[in-house]
Amino acid sequence: MVLLATISSVLSMITLAPIISMLFFVIFLASIGKSLGVRRMYVNLLVKIFEYGRQNIETARKQQHANLNISDNDDSALDGKLPHADDTGSSNNNDNAVPAEAEIKTNGDINNRTTKPHQQQQAHQNGNVVTNGGNTVISRVESLILLPEVDGAARSKSRESNYEEDHESFEFKLSNCLDYVKSGMEAIIEDEVTSRFEAEELKNWNLLTRTNRHYEFISLRLTVIWVIGFFIRYVILMPCRVFICFVGVMWLTLCTALVGCIPDGYTKRWMVRMVLIQCFGVLSSALSSVVNYHNIENRPLNGICVANHTSPIDVLMLMCDNCYSLIGQRHGGFLGVLQRALARASPHIWFERAEAKDRMAVARRLKEHVSDPNNPPILIFPEGTCINNTSVMQFKKGSFEVGGVIYPVAIKYDARFGDAFWNSSRYSMMQYLYMMMTSWAIVCDVWYLPPMTRGENESAIDFANRVKSVIAKQGGLVDLVWDGQLKRMKPKKEWKEKQQEEFTKRLKGE
């Protein structure tokens, strides 16, 4: 027994020592902002593996389709030889063939055979966004879509004027309602809001069971690759990432506590910036993140920085390159630990749940922060909720009423390596972190856009929409006018009444 215990202790020392040394080496490199390029090489290797998997899936699908056609031909020949064969048997065979054909077309995200050339070009633009949501059955008539807010009313009026010009002698017929019924049914099948809170649909399978259609068992080679990938993600990467995350949180808590003891001044501000960038660099390595920063000459130095919102790690991606103050509601649990640690070192604005509903109090504290040139830029997500990174939804006007310079930032994640979207109504923070740490990696692009100021005769809503449009265009995202809070609440009563009035005017031809 003593001999076995000795051998096991020696083996553990031999195996654990290099692993622990490697982890601390990774943490050290992340803390000084250096990289050996291993993560980028790892991501490039994953792209090649995904492409190999796509080719295997396509080959297997073609083989299944060929076998199905052969079986159909054999059945047809057999029907011709049977003396009492009728059309019922052949129709059943055709019915069985249709779902298989439909399945192949549905999997156009994998083999790209059913995508038209102009759709392929659009899909491979910045952000991989398809404007119709990938559904080729629904083609919406824009003149029948009722949009909220003033912008929607203005569009509706312009559409009405065009409609009246084309139909000077308007006469109501009952059949005119059918177009609105059709639009309503299309909205029920696929509305523009609900689909923004679902995981982004991938064009190629990324070997994760949370994004697949049982492709891991479609061929022996793909099964072997999937098993190896499962072992790497759960047995090697996940424990290492958890360890790095634990060290990063402890290091952040310790450093912010020490820096908080330094008197206010230039030295403290410089120390806070260095410490936060260093600590968040360590935390980002826990997700194997690869971030590409563009147009760094537009990096915000003060004022208000606004960005599209996908998940809490948006803050992590941005804080690896710059120091920001944050504004938001107080949280408990893991987020609460980070909030309290950050508050010790730098000025942040945290609200209680009841206080956060007081718009005047929020605006007052925001103006106080922006008016001090020594404060770092404050980072705001005007959408107010997490969107699945395929679109940008309505920006709240509060941060655009304060005045001063607005620094827009566009964030776009590559969902092939890991879906960064946090569906807070479905997953808790710990479940979300578990999914992030068992993904392949977090890859994203960050664009710093030129600063923008509010025009003299421009309202806060118009300014917010202008900033939102710039962010959506740069990130390759769909620009939507809908409020993201529709994720949790029903439409406001005044919205319904306004759209009812609009609907009656159209039917009357006014």
Could you characterize the architecture of this molecule?
The chain is of the alpha/beta class. It is 54% helix and 8% strand. It has 16 helices and nine strands. The chain has helices at 2-31, 38-81, 87-106, 108-111, 117-123, 149-166, 177-189, 220-259, 266-285, 313-319, 333-345, 353-356, 359-371, 429-437, 460-475, 493-508, and strands at residues 289-294, 304-307, 325-329, 349-351, 378-380, 391-392, 406-413, 442-448, 478-479. A seven-stranded mixed beta sheet has the order 1-8-7-2-5-3-4, with helices on both faces. Helix 11 links the parallel strand 3 and strand 4. Helix 1 (2-31) packs across helix 9 and helix 2 runs antiparallel to helix 3. The model is unreliable at 82-139 and 149-159 (pLDDT under 50).
Poorly predicted regions: 82-139, 149-159
Q: Name the beta content range.
A: 5-15%
CA-based gyration radius: 28 Å
**Spatial gap, N to C terminus:** 94 Å
Q: Residue-averaged pLDDT, rounded?
A: 75
Secondary-structure element order, N to C: HHHHHHHHHEEHEHEHHEEEHEHEH
Provide the spatial order of strands within the biggest beta sheet.
1-8-7-2-5-3-4
What is the structural class? Answer: alpha/beta
- State the helicity in percent bands: 40-55%
Q: Label the overall shape.
A: flat
| Number of separate strands | 9
Largest sheet: 7 strands, mixed
Q: Give the helix tally.
A: 16
Summary, kept brief:
The chain has helices spanning 2-31, 38-81, 87-106, 108-111, 117-123, 149-166, 177-189, 220-259, 266-285, 313-319, 333-345, 353-356, 359-371, 429-437, 460-475, 493-508, and strands spanning 289-294, 304-307, 325-329, 349-351, 378-380, 391-392, 406-413, 442-448, 478-479. By secondary structure, it is α/β, with parallel strands linked by helices.
